[in-house]
Amino acid sequence: MLSDRAKRIKPSPTLAMDAKAKAMKTAGFDIVNFGVGEPDFDTPENIKEAAIRAMREGFTKYTPVGGIDSLKDAIIEKFKKDNNLNYTREEIIVSCGAKHSLYNIAQALYNPGDEVLIPSPYWVSYPDQVMLNDAVPVFIKTDESESFMVKADAVEAHITKRTKAIILNSPSNPTGLTYDRKTLEEIAEVVLRHGLFIISDEVYEKLTYDGVNHISIASLDNELKSRTIIVNGLSKSYAMTGWRIGFAAGPKEIIKTMTNIQSQSTSNPNSIAQKAAVEALTGPQDFINIMLSEFDKRRKFLIKELNAITGLSCLTPTGAFYAFPNTSQFYGKVIGNRNIESSSDLALYLLEEAKVGLVHGGAFGDDNYIRLSYATSIEEIKKGVDRIRDALLKLK
Ligand code: PMP
Ligand code: GLU
Fold first, then answer.
1. Which CATH architecture has domain 4-42+287-393?
2. What span, in angstroms and rounded, lies between the C-alpha atoms of 320 and 296?
3. Ligand 1 pocket member 175 (CB < 6 A)
Protein backbone atom coordinates (compact mmCIF):
# COMPACT_ATOMS: atom_id res chain seq x y z
CA MET A 1 0.00 0.00 0.00
CA LEU A 2 2.68 2.49 0.99
CA SER A 3 5.37 3.92 -1.28
CA ASP A 4 8.86 2.37 -1.19
CA ARG A 5 10.17 5.83 -0.43
CA ALA A 6 8.03 6.19 2.68
CA LYS A 7 8.94 2.70 3.84
CA ARG A 8 12.64 3.65 3.86
CA ILE A 9 12.36 6.17 6.65
CA LYS A 10 11.67 6.20 10.38
CA PRO A 11 10.12 8.89 12.59
CA SER A 12 12.56 11.53 13.87
CA PRO A 13 14.15 9.79 16.90
CA THR A 14 14.75 13.07 18.73
CA LEU A 15 11.09 14.03 18.48
CA ALA A 16 10.08 10.44 19.34
CA MET A 17 12.27 10.46 22.46
CA ASP A 18 10.84 13.79 23.53
CA ALA A 19 7.30 12.49 23.07
CA LYS A 20 8.11 9.42 25.15
CA ALA A 21 9.67 11.44 28.01
CA LYS A 22 6.75 13.90 27.96
CA ALA A 23 4.20 11.03 28.01
CA MET A 24 5.91 9.58 31.09
CA LYS A 25 5.81 13.01 32.73
CA THR A 26 2.09 13.31 31.98
CA ALA A 27 1.60 9.83 33.45
CA GLY A 28 2.96 11.23 36.73
CA PHE A 29 6.65 10.20 36.60
CA ASP A 30 9.23 12.74 37.74
CA ILE A 31 11.31 12.80 34.54
CA VAL A 32 14.42 14.88 33.91
CA ASN A 33 14.32 15.52 30.18
CA PHE A 34 17.65 15.99 28.40
CA GLY A 35 15.99 14.67 25.25
CA VAL A 36 14.90 17.30 22.84
CA GLY A 37 17.04 20.07 21.44
CA GLU A 38 14.94 23.13 22.05
CA PRO A 39 15.71 26.22 24.15
CA ASP A 40 13.76 26.23 27.41
CA PHE A 41 13.55 30.05 27.20
CA ASP A 42 10.31 31.74 26.22
CA THR A 43 10.20 33.67 22.93
CA PRO A 44 11.08 37.31 23.77
CA GLU A 45 8.13 39.67 24.35
CA ASN A 46 9.02 42.08 21.52
CA ILE A 47 8.76 39.18 19.07
CA LYS A 48 5.40 38.05 20.45
CA GLU A 49 4.14 41.66 20.31
CA ALA A 50 5.08 41.85 16.63
CA ALA A 51 2.98 38.74 15.99
CA ILE A 52 0.01 40.18 17.90
CA ARG A 53 0.34 43.42 15.93
CA ALA A 54 0.42 41.46 12.67
CA MET A 55 -2.82 39.69 13.56
CA ARG A 56 -4.52 42.92 14.66
CA GLU A 57 -3.48 44.57 11.40
CA GLY A 58 -5.01 41.70 9.46
CA PHE A 59 -1.72 40.30 8.22
CA THR A 60 -3.39 36.92 8.09
CA LYS A 61 -3.48 36.09 4.39
CA TYR A 62 -1.25 34.23 1.95
CA THR A 63 2.12 35.89 1.44
CA PRO A 64 4.61 35.41 -1.40
CA VAL A 65 5.61 31.72 -1.33
CA GLY A 66 9.28 32.28 -0.48
CA GLY A 67 8.64 34.88 2.22
CA ILE A 68 7.79 38.58 2.49
CA ASP A 69 10.31 41.13 1.22
CA SER A 70 10.83 42.73 4.63
CA LEU A 71 11.85 39.35 6.07
CA LYS A 72 14.09 38.55 3.11
CA ASP A 73 15.73 41.97 3.59
CA ALA A 74 16.25 41.29 7.30
CA ILE A 75 17.86 37.94 6.40
CA ILE A 76 20.06 39.62 3.78
CA GLU A 77 21.20 42.11 6.47
CA LYS A 78 21.91 39.24 8.86
CA PHE A 79 24.16 37.54 6.30
CA LYS A 80 25.98 40.80 5.65
CA LYS A 81 26.50 41.60 9.31
CA ASP A 82 27.21 38.13 10.72
CA ASN A 83 28.86 36.30 7.81
CA ASN A 84 30.15 39.02 5.49
CA LEU A 85 28.04 37.46 2.71
CA ASN A 86 26.01 39.39 0.14
CA TYR A 87 22.76 37.94 -1.19
CA THR A 88 19.84 39.33 -3.17
CA ARG A 89 16.17 38.56 -2.51
CA GLU A 90 16.21 35.98 -5.32
CA GLU A 91 18.88 34.06 -3.45
CA ILE A 92 16.82 33.73 -0.24
CA ILE A 93 13.86 31.50 0.65
CA VAL A 94 11.93 31.45 3.91
CA SER A 95 10.49 28.05 4.82
CA CYS A 96 8.50 26.42 7.62
CA GLY A 97 11.60 25.83 9.76
CA ALA A 98 15.18 25.01 8.81
CA LYS A 99 14.11 21.37 8.50
CA HIS A 100 11.75 22.39 5.71
CA SER A 101 14.48 24.36 3.93
CA LEU A 102 16.69 21.26 4.12
CA TYR A 103 13.88 19.15 2.72
CA ASN A 104 13.33 21.58 -0.17
CA ILE A 105 17.05 21.41 -0.98
CA ALA A 106 16.89 17.61 -1.10
CA GLN A 107 13.91 17.78 -3.45
CA ALA A 108 15.55 20.38 -5.65
CA LEU A 109 18.97 18.73 -5.97
CA TYR A 110 18.90 14.95 -5.82
CA ASN A 111 18.20 12.45 -8.57
CA PRO A 112 17.63 8.75 -7.84
CA GLY A 113 20.94 7.13 -6.95
CA ASP A 114 22.79 10.38 -6.26
CA GLU A 115 25.12 10.08 -3.30
CA VAL A 116 25.16 12.61 -0.51
CA LEU A 117 28.09 12.71 1.91
CA ILE A 118 27.10 12.96 5.56
CA PRO A 119 29.80 13.19 8.22
CA SER A 120 28.82 11.01 11.16
CA PRO A 121 27.69 11.55 13.90
CA TYR A 122 25.00 13.56 12.11
CA TRP A 123 21.71 15.23 12.88
CA VAL A 124 18.91 12.68 12.64
CA SER A 125 16.97 14.10 9.69
CA TYR A 126 19.80 14.30 7.14
CA PRO A 127 19.86 10.64 6.02
CA ASP A 128 16.10 10.23 6.01
CA GLN A 129 15.57 13.37 3.94
CA VAL A 130 18.13 12.10 1.45
CA MET A 131 16.39 8.70 1.28
CA LEU A 132 12.96 10.31 0.94
CA ASN A 133 14.28 11.80 -2.26
CA ASP A 134 15.57 8.49 -3.65
CA ALA A 135 19.20 9.47 -3.11
CA VAL A 136 21.77 7.55 -1.07
CA PRO A 137 23.36 8.79 2.16
CA VAL A 138 27.08 8.00 2.33
CA PHE A 139 28.41 8.31 5.85
CA ILE A 140 31.91 9.49 6.67
CA LYS A 141 32.83 8.44 10.17
CA THR A 142 34.56 11.13 12.21
CA ASP A 143 36.59 10.65 15.31
CA GLU A 144 36.35 11.98 18.84
CA SER A 145 40.13 12.50 18.82
CA GLU A 146 39.65 14.99 15.95
CA SER A 147 36.76 16.79 17.66
CA PHE A 148 34.35 14.95 15.32
CA MET A 149 35.41 17.15 12.39
CA VAL A 150 35.43 15.47 9.00
CA LYS A 151 38.81 15.82 7.30
CA ALA A 152 39.38 16.68 3.64
CA ASP A 153 41.14 13.39 2.84
CA ALA A 154 38.22 11.40 4.26
CA VAL A 155 35.81 13.46 2.14
CA GLU A 156 37.91 12.80 -0.94
CA ALA A 157 38.06 9.06 -0.21
CA HIS A 158 34.25 8.83 -0.24
CA ILE A 159 33.65 10.70 -3.50
CA THR A 160 32.40 8.69 -6.49
CA LYS A 161 30.91 9.61 -9.87
CA ARG A 162 27.49 9.75 -8.18
CA THR A 163 28.44 12.15 -5.38
CA LYS A 164 26.30 15.26 -5.55
CA ALA A 165 26.69 17.08 -2.26
CA ILE A 166 28.01 17.11 1.27
CA ILE A 167 26.05 18.18 4.34
CA LEU A 168 28.07 20.11 6.93
CA ASN A 169 26.75 21.19 10.31
CA SER A 170 28.70 23.57 12.53
CA PRO A 171 28.08 24.07 15.42
CA SER A 172 27.09 20.44 15.39
CA ASN A 173 24.07 18.60 16.63
CA PRO A 174 24.76 16.14 18.35
CA THR A 175 28.43 16.74 19.26
CA GLY A 176 28.27 20.46 20.11
CA LEU A 177 31.59 20.95 18.32
CA THR A 178 32.55 23.58 15.79
CA TYR A 179 34.70 23.52 12.66
CA ASP A 180 37.85 25.64 12.47
CA ARG A 181 38.83 27.70 9.44
CA LYS A 182 41.72 25.49 8.34
CA THR A 183 39.58 22.32 8.25
CA LEU A 184 36.85 24.15 6.33
CA GLU A 185 39.37 25.48 3.82
CA GLU A 186 40.75 22.00 3.21
CA ILE A 187 37.27 20.52 2.73
CA ALA A 188 36.38 23.42 0.43
CA GLU A 189 39.33 22.69 -1.83
CA VAL A 190 38.21 19.06 -2.32
CA VAL A 191 34.57 20.01 -2.81
CA LEU A 192 35.40 22.60 -5.46
CA ARG A 193 37.78 20.31 -7.30
CA HIS A 194 35.03 17.67 -7.57
CA GLY A 195 32.22 20.14 -8.33
CA LEU A 196 30.05 19.13 -5.37
CA PHE A 197 27.42 21.20 -3.61
CA ILE A 198 27.73 22.04 0.07
CA ILE A 199 24.67 22.18 2.26
CA SER A 200 25.78 24.10 5.31
CA ASP A 201 23.43 23.83 8.27
CA GLU A 202 24.20 26.79 10.51
CA VAL A 203 21.16 26.82 12.81
CA TYR A 204 23.36 26.96 15.94
CA GLU A 205 25.47 29.82 14.57
CA LYS A 206 24.68 32.20 17.44
CA LEU A 207 25.37 29.62 20.12
CA THR A 208 29.15 29.37 20.48
CA TYR A 209 31.35 29.44 23.60
CA ASP A 210 34.92 29.99 24.77
CA GLY A 211 35.49 32.78 22.25
CA VAL A 212 34.82 30.52 19.26
CA ASN A 213 33.49 32.41 16.25
CA HIS A 214 31.20 30.66 13.81
CA ILE A 215 32.64 30.50 10.30
CA SER A 216 30.30 30.06 7.38
CA ILE A 217 32.05 27.98 4.72
CA ALA A 218 30.38 30.07 1.97
CA SER A 219 32.28 33.12 3.21
CA LEU A 220 35.68 31.57 2.41
CA ASP A 221 35.54 32.53 -1.28
CA ASN A 222 33.13 33.48 -4.03
CA GLU A 223 33.33 30.30 -6.07
CA LEU A 224 32.53 28.35 -2.93
CA LYS A 225 29.54 30.60 -2.26
CA SER A 226 28.15 29.64 -5.67
CA ARG A 227 28.30 25.94 -4.64
CA THR A 228 26.86 26.39 -1.13
CA ILE A 229 23.34 26.53 0.18
CA ILE A 230 23.29 27.84 3.73
CA VAL A 231 20.44 26.78 5.99
CA ASN A 232 19.63 28.73 9.11
CA GLY A 233 16.58 29.59 11.17
CA LEU A 234 15.09 31.29 14.17
CA SER A 235 14.22 28.24 16.28
CA LYS A 236 17.42 28.11 18.30
CA SER A 237 18.72 31.71 18.35
CA TYR A 238 15.43 33.32 19.32
CA ALA A 239 13.73 30.43 21.16
CA MET A 240 11.13 30.17 18.39
CA THR A 241 10.91 26.43 17.72
CA GLY A 242 7.11 26.43 17.51
CA TRP A 243 6.89 29.38 15.12
CA ARG A 244 8.43 27.37 12.28
CA ILE A 245 10.58 29.91 10.49
CA GLY A 246 13.78 28.83 8.78
CA PHE A 247 15.56 30.04 5.69
CA ALA A 248 18.11 29.17 3.05
CA ALA A 249 20.50 31.22 0.94
CA GLY A 250 22.16 30.00 -2.22
CA PRO A 251 22.39 30.18 -6.01
CA LYS A 252 19.36 31.79 -7.66
CA GLU A 253 18.40 28.75 -9.72
CA ILE A 254 18.34 26.42 -6.73
CA ILE A 255 16.40 28.88 -4.56
CA LYS A 256 13.89 29.40 -7.38
CA THR A 257 13.39 25.64 -7.67
CA MET A 258 12.99 25.30 -3.92
CA THR A 259 10.38 28.06 -4.06
CA ASN A 260 8.51 26.22 -6.83
CA ILE A 261 8.54 23.07 -4.71
CA GLN A 262 7.30 25.04 -1.71
CA SER A 263 4.55 26.57 -3.87
CA GLN A 264 3.30 23.04 -4.59
CA SER A 265 3.55 21.80 -1.01
CA THR A 266 3.20 24.17 1.96
CA SER A 267 2.84 27.56 0.18
CA ASN A 268 4.22 30.40 2.28
CA PRO A 269 5.38 29.99 5.88
CA ASN A 270 2.91 31.37 8.42
CA SER A 271 2.32 35.09 7.74
CA ILE A 272 2.19 36.08 11.42
CA ALA A 273 5.37 34.18 12.25
CA GLN A 274 7.10 35.96 9.35
CA LYS A 275 6.30 39.36 10.89
CA ALA A 276 7.56 38.09 14.23
CA ALA A 277 10.74 36.91 12.49
CA VAL A 278 11.36 40.41 11.09
CA GLU A 279 11.22 41.76 14.64
CA ALA A 280 13.50 38.96 15.89
CA LEU A 281 16.17 39.75 13.31
CA THR A 282 15.93 43.55 13.35
CA GLY A 283 14.89 44.28 16.96
CA PRO A 284 17.05 44.22 20.11
CA GLN A 285 19.48 41.29 20.16
CA ASP A 286 20.38 41.25 23.87
CA PHE A 287 18.17 38.19 24.45
CA ILE A 288 20.70 35.98 22.65
CA ASN A 289 23.52 36.90 25.02
CA ILE A 290 21.33 36.40 28.08
CA MET A 291 20.35 32.93 26.85
CA LEU A 292 23.90 32.15 25.79
CA SER A 293 25.45 33.03 29.13
CA GLU A 294 22.92 30.78 30.87
CA PHE A 295 23.70 27.93 28.44
CA ASP A 296 27.39 28.51 29.08
CA LYS A 297 26.97 28.08 32.87
CA ARG A 298 25.03 24.88 32.31
CA ARG A 299 27.56 23.62 29.79
CA LYS A 300 30.46 24.07 32.18
CA PHE A 301 28.55 22.47 35.04
CA LEU A 302 27.29 19.51 33.01
CA ILE A 303 30.61 18.67 31.36
CA LYS A 304 32.44 18.80 34.70
CA GLU A 305 29.84 16.53 36.32
CA LEU A 306 29.78 14.06 33.41
CA ASN A 307 33.55 13.72 33.35
CA ALA A 308 33.53 13.08 37.10
CA ILE A 309 31.52 9.87 36.52
CA THR A 310 33.87 6.90 36.39
CA GLY A 311 33.77 5.27 32.95
CA LEU A 312 32.21 8.26 31.19
CA SER A 313 34.12 10.84 29.15
CA CYS A 314 32.89 13.91 27.33
CA LEU A 315 34.60 16.48 25.12
CA THR A 316 33.85 20.10 25.97
CA PRO A 317 31.39 21.38 23.38
CA THR A 318 32.09 24.78 21.85
CA GLY A 319 28.63 25.34 20.39
CA ALA A 320 24.91 24.46 20.39
CA PHE A 321 23.46 23.03 23.64
CA TYR A 322 24.40 19.37 23.53
CA ALA A 323 26.82 17.14 25.39
CA PHE A 324 27.83 13.91 23.67
CA PRO A 325 29.56 11.68 26.23
CA ASN A 326 31.24 8.41 25.33
CA THR A 327 29.36 5.62 27.08
CA SER A 328 31.02 2.62 25.45
CA GLN A 329 32.67 1.56 28.74
CA PHE A 330 29.26 0.54 30.00
CA TYR A 331 28.39 -1.80 27.18
CA GLY A 332 28.55 -5.46 28.13
CA LYS A 333 27.38 -4.65 31.67
CA VAL A 334 24.33 -6.10 33.35
CA ILE A 335 21.74 -5.16 35.95
CA GLY A 336 19.23 -7.80 37.02
CA ASN A 337 18.05 -9.38 33.79
CA ARG A 338 18.80 -6.28 31.74
CA ASN A 339 21.85 -6.39 29.47
CA ILE A 340 23.35 -3.12 28.29
CA GLU A 341 24.78 -3.80 24.84
CA SER A 342 24.19 -0.53 23.01
CA SER A 343 23.40 3.15 23.34
CA SER A 344 19.70 2.42 22.96
CA ASP A 345 19.80 -0.18 25.77
CA LEU A 346 21.50 2.43 27.93
CA ALA A 347 19.07 5.21 27.01
CA LEU A 348 16.11 2.93 27.74
CA TYR A 349 17.62 1.87 31.07
CA LEU A 350 18.22 5.50 32.06
CA LEU A 351 14.68 6.45 31.08
CA GLU A 352 12.90 3.56 32.74
CA GLU A 353 15.04 3.14 35.85
CA ALA A 354 16.63 6.56 36.43
CA LYS A 355 13.78 8.58 34.92
CA VAL A 356 16.17 10.54 32.73
CA GLY A 357 15.26 11.20 29.09
CA LEU A 358 18.10 11.50 26.56
CA VAL A 359 18.80 10.32 23.02
CA HIS A 360 20.91 7.26 22.18
CA GLY A 361 23.96 7.93 20.00
CA GLY A 362 22.85 5.28 17.51
CA ALA A 363 20.17 7.73 16.35
CA PHE A 364 22.99 10.04 15.23
CA GLY A 365 25.03 7.25 13.66
CA ASP A 366 27.42 6.46 16.53
CA ASP A 367 26.48 3.88 19.08
CA ASN A 368 29.35 4.70 21.45
CA TYR A 369 27.65 7.85 22.71
CA ILE A 370 24.49 9.35 24.16
CA ARG A 371 23.24 12.90 23.63
CA LEU A 372 22.11 15.20 26.40
CA SER A 373 20.51 18.55 25.64
CA TYR A 374 21.32 21.04 28.40
CA ALA A 375 18.50 23.37 27.42
CA THR A 376 17.09 22.85 30.89
CA SER A 377 17.72 24.47 34.30
CA ILE A 378 20.88 23.92 36.39
CA GLU A 379 18.69 22.34 39.12
CA GLU A 380 17.29 19.82 36.63
CA ILE A 381 20.77 19.17 35.23
CA LYS A 382 22.08 18.48 38.73
CA LYS A 383 19.18 16.17 39.51
CA GLY A 384 19.58 14.38 36.17
CA VAL A 385 23.34 13.88 36.46
CA ASP A 386 22.97 12.52 40.01
CA ARG A 387 20.46 10.01 38.69
CA ILE A 388 22.68 9.03 35.76
CA ARG A 389 25.68 8.53 38.08
CA ASP A 390 23.68 6.35 40.49
CA ALA A 391 22.21 4.29 37.66
CA LEU A 392 25.60 3.75 35.97
CA LEU A 393 27.20 2.75 39.29
CA LYS A 394 24.64 -0.04 39.64
CA LEU A 395 25.74 -1.65 36.36
CA LYS A 396 28.05 -4.62 36.93
N1 PMP B 1 19.31 21.41 11.81
C2 PMP B 1 19.75 21.00 13.02
C3 PMP B 1 21.17 20.60 13.16
C4 PMP B 1 18.89 20.97 14.12
O5 PMP B 1 19.32 20.55 15.30
C6 PMP B 1 17.55 21.36 13.94
C7 PMP B 1 16.64 21.31 15.14
N8 PMP B 1 15.52 20.62 15.01
C9 PMP B 1 17.14 21.78 12.66
C10 PMP B 1 18.04 21.78 11.62
C11 PMP B 1 15.74 22.17 12.33
O12 PMP B 1 15.32 23.30 13.02
P13 PMP B 1 13.92 24.00 12.71
O14 PMP B 1 13.21 23.18 11.71
O15 PMP B 1 13.21 24.04 14.03
O16 PMP B 1 14.26 25.37 12.21
N1 GLU C 1 16.86 19.55 16.50
C2 GLU C 1 16.21 19.17 17.71
C3 GLU C 1 16.86 17.92 18.25
O4 GLU C 1 17.76 17.40 17.65
C5 GLU C 1 14.73 19.10 17.58
C6 GLU C 1 14.14 17.77 17.19
C7 GLU C 1 14.03 17.55 15.71
O8 GLU C 1 13.66 18.48 14.99
O9 GLU C 1 14.31 16.43 15.31
O10 GLU C 1 16.48 17.48 19.30
1. Alpha-Beta Complex (3.90)
2. 10
3. no
